[in-house]
Amino acid sequence: MKTLKKQEIREVIDELEKLYPNAECELNFTTPFELLVATILSAQCTDKRVNIVTEKLFKDYNTPEDFLKLKEGELELLIKSTGFYRNKSKSILGTSRILVDKYNSQVPDTREELMKLPGVGRKTANVVMSNAFGKEAIAVDTHVFRVSNRIGLANSSNVDKTEEDLMKNIPENEWSKAHHLLIFHGRRICKARNPQCELCPLRGVCFYYKKTV
DNA sequence: AACTCGGGGCA
DNA sequence: TGCCCAGAGTT
């Protein structure tokens, strides 16, 4: 596998934008803190189920102070259907504690500070920076990783280097947009199993398609 | 690099 | 019933 040429990369982004003109974050939130909580909950869970949980959860709890009123076990019950609920409950409460104690209950907007919060890795930090603070970032989840390496926007076996490849190959003012386009494509056509290559406009340049033909 | 956490939707 | 889902922490 190699990576595409610059002109091909331009065409890929344009094609994906035509295919998904409304690609955007599908998690429901009204504040950076709500997005941070929703993104922690979204690990190995569909965003639809996260939205079902947060729709009720955020009615009663939408600030770090609110969540600190809950015991770990109480929060576990509220978020149970998102899976990994023990880890997520610890992460949300630990993060809430730090925000109240050190950040005046505000969510920091730098990757370094976000990644110090329990349960916040590079992917979650990038999602928050991009969708809550308008900073350009490429959050590499399973979809972005798979699709970009199949097509040839990246050529790497780990997510950190995939992010480096993407930042190198994609203009900085399009990082956040590209992130959403790759997720939409991964969920609808370039699926992990049985990808719908016959529906994909990127067949002409895609390394994965060339390999499977 | 491999392992663990996990309930719910869907075939 | 088996497989999979907008990851992160530990060993």
From TrEMBL:
Domain HhH-GPD: 41-188
InterPro entries, per database record: DNA_glycosylase, Endonuclease-III-like_CS2, Endonuclease3_FeS-loop_motif, HhH-GPD_domain, HhH_base_excis_C, HhH_motif, Hlx-hairpin-Hlx_DNA-bd_motif, Nth
UniProt cofactor note: Binds 1 [4Fe-4S] cluster.
Listed GO MF terms: 4 iron, 4 sulfur cluster binding; class I DNA-(apurinic or apyrimidinic site) endonuclease activity; DNA binding; DNA N-glycosylase activity; metal ion binding
One Gene Ontology biological process: base-excision repair, AP site formation
Cofactor (UniProt): [4Fe-4S] cluster
Binding positions for [4Fe-4S] cluster per the UniProt entry: C190, C197, C200, C206
Gene3D superfamilies xref list: Helix-hairpin-Helix base-excision DNA repair enzymes (C-terminal) (1.10.1670.10), Hypothetical protein, domain 2 (1.10.340.30)
SUPFAM superfamilies according to UniProt: DNA-glycosylase (SSF48150)
Domain Helix-hairpin-helix DNA-binding motif class: 112-131
Enzyme Commission number: 4.2.99.18
Keywords: 4Fe-4S, DNA damage, DNA repair, DNA-binding, Endonuclease, Glycosidase, Hydrolase, Iron, Iron-sulfur, Lyase, Metal-binding, Nuclease
Catalysed reaction equations from the record: 2'-deoxyribonucleotide-(2'-deoxyribose 5'-phosphate)-2'-deoxyribonucleotide-DNA = a 3'-end 2'-deoxyribonucleotide-(2,3-dehydro-2,3-deoxyribose 5'-phosphate)-DNA + a 5'-end 5'-phospho-2'-deoxyribonucleoside-DNA + H(+)
Family label: Belongs to the Nth/MutY family.
HAMAP family: Nth (MF_00942)
UniProt function note: DNA repair enzyme that has both DNA N-glycosylase activity and AP-lyase activity. The DNA N-glycosylase activity releases various damaged pyrimidines from DNA by cleaving the N-glycosidic bond, leaving an AP (apurinic/apyrimidinic) site. The AP-lyase activity cleaves the phosphodiester bond 3' to the AP site by a beta-elimination, leaving a 3'-terminal unsaturated sugar and a product with a terminal 5'-phosphate.
Protein name stated in the entry: Endonuclease III
Name of the gene encoding the protein in the UniProt record: nth
